[in-house]
Design goal:
Length: about 325
């Protein structure tokens, strides 16, 4: 089959190649991929930025989001049949969505939301799971709480805004002026143009900040929280919880605690909290999210769709920050949806 393969770690290490079809384990569904989407994580994994923690052995197929049709099920699979339209964020170390076929553990898969085309559904899993896990599992966002979501026009931010609004939060976001209309339509109540204004000078009393920018942006984010408020960063620095989540040896936890010591100390001195977050595959959460897409509470935001033969260009487009808003989809087959 055709796949987009990382042959060696690094910027020029990946290309479309012919590889063997995946073997299907007892708990796996084999999915004929209709579409995938690009996440910044793809670039990081290709570059080897995670190789101490996520030990992918080259050559391996890249790609963290999938929508497609089930063509085979393992002997222990329950609830999926050949012909089902599904979507998934395959678990770490079993990624490989940029391919004609992928075998995915049944626990990571959910039926595609009926209201979305396969290409639209491919834009959803990773960012929607991250949104759910940050807002619901970690921060327990309640109606009336004030939530600041950075980079609201991005693939992640555009999804988190919608879910935070659905949960009843008052939502502020940072975005360029030309994205203001979009982020307001997604549910943002307050929009700060990060190219013109310093959000930390105009926002205060927040229960939660989601940082996807890092560095000084994270440090400033701590100052807009109310006492006891929580800053969650999806870009780091990592903390010991991340090493534990990945099952890394305990010394890695100590290393990560050192990496995040400065920001945790800053948070403590301000009477607020800091946590790093890294999303996980979860098919049952994708089912709940699917219902929110089908009821119109959430919608995918798609910047552009590339054909599979242009996966390199699609990745470069995202890496160069050329997206105006939302996700970049890669279509394996034309969408009839
Ligand atoms: N840990 C996790 O589980 C997890 C999950 C999802 C994403 N992430 C990470 O989160 C980051 C964003 O992901 P994404 O999928 O949303 O990427 P994306 O689609 O490429 O979006 C990035 C967005 O950031 C905006 N931006 C850049 N600088 C900014 C600033 N200083 N203030 C506010 N916005 C700014 C860009 O807006 P302009 O184009 O207008 O500049 C763009 O809309 C990536 O680093 C990704 O790896 C982590």
């Amino acid at each position: 089959m055709k796949a987009f393969v990382v042959e060696k770690y690094g910027k020029d290490g990946a290309r479309v190649a012919e590889v063997a079809e995946p073997t299907v384990g007892g708990r796996d569904v084999l999915v004929k991929v209709s579409a995938t989407s690009i996440n910044p994580l793809d670039k990081m994994v290709r570059n080897g930025e995670f190789k101490q923690l996520l030990k992918y052995k080259t050559p391996f197929v890249l790609g963290h989001d999938v929508a497609g049709v089930v063509t085979q099920v393992g002997s222990a699979v329950r609830g999926f049949s050949v012909g089902d339209e599904v979507y998934a964020r395959p678990r770490d170390l079993r990624i490989g969505g940029f391919a004609e076929f992928i075998a995915i553990d049944q626990d990571d898969v959910a039926p595609k939301p009926a209201s979305l085309t396969l290409q639209e559904a491919a834009a959803v899993p990773l960012v929607a799971l991250a949104a759910w896990q940050v807002l619901v599992d970690r921060a327990h966002v309640k109606p009336g709480q004030k939530v600041l979501i950075h980079a609201g026009a991005g693939g992640l931010g555009s999804t988190v805004i919608q879910l935070a609004k659905h949960l009843g939060a008052t939502v502020a976001t940072t975005a360029r002026a030309d994205s203001e209309k979009l982020v307001r339509s997604l549910g943002a109540d307050v929009v700060v143009d990060y190219t013109k204004e310093d959000f930390s000078k105009v926002l205060s009393g927040y229960d939660l900040v989601l940082d996807s920018v890092g560095g000084a942006n994270l440090e400033k984010s701590l100052t807009v929280l109310k006492p006891g408020g929580l800053a969650i960063s999806v870009v780091g620095p990592p903390d010991a919880g991340f090493a534990k989540q990945l099952g890394a040896p305990s010394f890695m936890g100590a290393v990560m605690n050192i990496l995040s010591r400065k920001v945790r100390k800053q948070a403590k001195s301000l009477g607020v909290r800091y946590e790093f977050f890294f999303m996980q595959a979860n098919g049952s959460q994708l089912r709940k999210l699917g219902a929110l897409y089908d009821s119109g509470k959430l919608r995918p935001v798609i910047d552009r769709t590339f054909p599979f033969g242009q996966t390199l260009e699609a990745m470069a487009y995202v890496e160069q920050g050329r997206t105006k808003a939302g996700k970049v989809v890669v279509a394996m087959v034309p969408d009839n949806g």
